[in-house]
Amino acid sequence: MFRHTSRLQFTSKPDKPDALYAMKLQELIGGAWGEMTVSQQYLFQGWNCRVPGKYKDMIMDIATEEIGHVEMLATMVARLLEGAPSETVAGSLDGDAATAAIIGGMNPQHAIVGGGGALPSDSNGNPWMGSYIVSSGNLLADFRVNVAAESQGRLQTARLYNMTDDYGVREMLKFNLARDTMHQLQWLAAIEQLQEDGLGGVVVPDALLDEENQEHSRTLWGLSDGQHAHEGKWAQGTAPDGAHEFTYLNNPDPLGDIADAPAPDPMLYATYNTSHDGIIGKVKDKLGS
């Protein structure tokens, strides 16, 4: 059961309306890394968590908080759109409403679809998609995705912070930045806790390590013109799991056969060279395969 309280987590009041910035702020609502994504991602991870106790409780705490972040941003967007489109857009470029609507004005969907309110979409008007969320049932894999989500979200918030000088907007974004900092650290700590509790190793999943082709589980393949990849910790020394030793192999030979497709069914009317099989056979004979 969820309960709603009318008070926001933090004040969301701009100093003045700004329809263009309202459009930009939509990215933090309905973008791939926006609050709708993380709220739904954490909710499904929490609902699917098979480990009762501290992990499930923590996931549900942060998931519920993120719902509140969506409301904060939606409220800010509505207040940034105050007076739009007639007042804000018309006045944004010295009263030239036509030019303002094209260059400096609002997202028209804010007026046409949202009635002057926020939308479940990104800054380009693309609708939010449930396919953005990740909930695999493996907490270690999910927590790593969550670190990335909070990192990308904080990055976008920081960029938007520098796109406005509105004091009220910046005060809200300062709060959001701080919570994104906390959440990054929280998920990193949760990853450490999982490993300490024996619920996850370094590689996900911590299984089939003996069955896999171990010859290829430690080697960085040099497949580009760059000459310095071998200088990193990922190409030499002990791997983070303590069990693998990294090596570097420059310009490795292909290990597979020729990527030729079989002749198509004639009823599909696909273009096909009838001499194809003969040519491939000669090549394979030369390669000894």
From TrEMBL:
Family designation: Belongs to the manganese catalase family.
Superkingdom classification of source: Bacteria
Family matches, as InterPro entries: Ferritin-like (IPR012347), Ferritin-like_SF (IPR009078), Mn_catalase (IPR007760), Mn_catalase_dom (IPR039377)
Organism field: Actinomycetospora flava
Name under which the protein is recorded: Manganese catalase family protein
Pfam families with a match to the protein in the record: Mn_catalase
